[in-house]
Amino acid sequence: MATPSPKTCVACGRHIAPSELYYRFTLVLQGEQDVLEPSGSSGTGEELASLMRKLEEGPEDPREWEEQVHWERTGVICAACRAVVMRTLAPPSSGETDPH
């Protein structure tokens, strides 16, 4: 029987022993925007020119643009970090403040 490869938690960096429980994850963030500008406020040409200016003033590196639209990570986390991730991604309970 082959020995399992060593695993390291991507959140805390701790080595996870082969006998320990660990969690695989895939996280995908995809940027979306339903409306560019309220309709009727300006002509289509002006809206397009404004969008082009924003694109030209944006980051130089195309990878930064790509990550604003699609960001994906996979990995392994330990049980302690799983609890933190679950709390972070859980919907807020009533009475909790907005994280932003």
Automatic annotation (TrEMBL):
Residues 53-67 have a biased composition (Basic and acidic residues). It comes from the Bacteria. Residues 36-67 are annotated as: Disordered. This is Uncharacterized protein.
